[in-house]
Structures are given as C-alpha cells and as structure tokens.
Amino acid sequence: MTKTQQVLLAKRPSGLPDADTWRIATEDLPAIAAGQILVKVDLISIDPAMRGWLNDVRSYLPPVGIDEVMRSLDVATVVESAHPDFAVGETVSGTFGVTEYAISDGNGVQRIDLSIAPAATWLGALGMPGMTAYFGLLEVGKLRAGETVVISAAAGAVGGVAGQIAKAFGARVIGIAGGAEKCRVLIEELGFDAAIDYRGEDVLHRLRELAPDGIDVFFDNVGGDILDAALANLARGARVVICGAISSYNDDKPAPGPSRYMSLLIFRASMTGFVVFDYRDRYGEAVAKISQWLADGKIKAREHVVEGGVARFGETLNMLFAGANTGKLVLAI
Known about the structure:
Elements: E1 2-9, E2 22-29, E3 37-45, H1 49-53, E4 74-81, E5 91-94, E6 101-104, E7 110-111, H2 128-140, E8 148-151, H3 157-168, E9 172-177, H4 180-189, E10 194-197, H5 203-210, E11 215-220, H6 224-231, E12 234-242, H7 263-266, E13 270-273, H8 283-296, E14 303-307, H9 313-322, E15 328-332
Parallel strand pairs: 8-9, 8-11, 9-10, 11-12, 12-13, 14-15
Antiparallel strand pairs: 1-2, 3-4, 3-6, 3-15, 4-5, 5-7
C-alpha cells in the first residue's frame, strides 16, 4: 500500500483562488490490478487553464468536482507495473493530478524520451504549450513567411514557443509582456524582433509604431484591452487566434466583449478560438518538428521550476496570475 498526499478542490473560488480553495489530503492507494501502473509524480504542469477548470460551467472539459483531486498534466516515473506496455523505471506523461503517487490504466499515458529533452521541457515546448503554439499558429493562424505576428503573454509557456515558431517560419515577431526584464528575454534570448511592455507602454500606439502596415496574425493569450489594441491595428485579411484570456480568468463577472470587433469587418479579418485537444491525433507531427528546432537551436526551451511538493500548488498556480513566471511554470514534487 502506498501513501500519497493530494490536493483536492475544497470549494469553488470567487476571484483569485486562495487557501480555502484547496484541501491537502493523505490517501492510501490500493495495490495495482492487472492492466494498471503506479507512478511517482515528479513534475506538475501549472497552466492558466486550471483556473477555468474550477468553475462549474459548461466548457471543453468538465469542471473539477468538489473533493476531487485537482486535474493536472504531469511527468512521472513508473514504480510498479502490471501493464504490458509500461515498464518500471520508464518516464511518462499523463493527467495524473496534483498528487505524489497515482494509479493509472495507461489511458492517455505517453512515454517520454529524456534523450531528446529534459523532463520539464516535455511539459513546455514539447508538451501542451508547444502543441498549442504549433497548431494555433500554423493551422488556425495560417501563418505565412514574411508576415507580421504579434503575441500577447509572449513570455509565458505558450507565447514564448509561439514567437520562436513564427521566427522559424520567417515571420516578423512582436511580443507583448509585462516588465522590462521579460521584454529583454524576448528579444535577447528568444529572438523576437521587438517587445512591448504593457506595464509601462501604450500598447495601442506602440503597435502602430512597430507594425505600421498592420498585424497579419495576432496570437492572443490575454484578452481585454490587449485584444482591443491589436484589433485596432490589423492588416487586411488578418487572423486573430484566441488561445486564452488570462486577464479575465479571476473576474467574478463575464468579461465584456472586444469593443473594436468591427475591425474584423473593416479589414476582412477573422477571429477564431481553438482548443489544442482537437489536434491530439497530430501531436506526433508537432513533437517531431519542435524537437528538430530544439536540436537546431531555432527554439530555446525555458522553464520556471518551483520546488516544494504538492503543498505549494496553490501559491504556485497564483504565480501565473501575478505574472511572476517567465517560460513554462512547473512544480517539482
């Protein structure tokens, strides 16, 4: 019998999750049955989407239930196996939750190759953020070489990879991020052509200066005023890719719609939302391509790893909403 500490949803938050949102419990896991594996969770992916999973509303996934283990995508090590496809000692990824140990029937579990990239990168550039950036830009955004691409939350897990993919395809890339240091990272480390500090600059006017001929692809992770500023600066035929809206995830009321939506008509543009799970059958394609870019140095993986175990989950999640991370945020167990 294996003991595990888990983070459960104690109550649905109103606004920013706080200590009352979570409850830490210890559970005795039963012995594994035929066709199951026992994994030790090593790394937990911390994602903005987690906030949406706490709301009891209709969405692309059912909400996390009260007293259920918080949903998360993890990297883990197989410590016991009664499954023909998984051996003890293998490193895998799967939706095991915010827990130290978990039992799985192998559904949705994938082996990961640490010779290609470190474990944390399989939660970032080679994980859901990388898949989101790849398909969001290339399939939804229909990116073409020579175009001007603008990315909000560009120093985050998805935005940083998206900008580098756009550069690999020959686009001109402008990132929007919070703070001078993040903007420096975008330009000096990730190769963006320009960066706008939304905390200290007028985003609307800076976009007009940096993209005088308009924005061809806007990859949005933020929503709100940032989305409106981009809509005011579209090129004809622009594609606006709605990946997320982190600026409103903790709002008590629905965020107002974009005030400049008529720009879509004026510039014959489109605005499309997407969920990366729709492309799950093609993840292998994206992993192969991004792996090659990593090997060639065209993409640099950047992770922000927090140590401390499941007890630090709540405070680590809130780092996202404070903009305290640069790159993929990961909790090490």
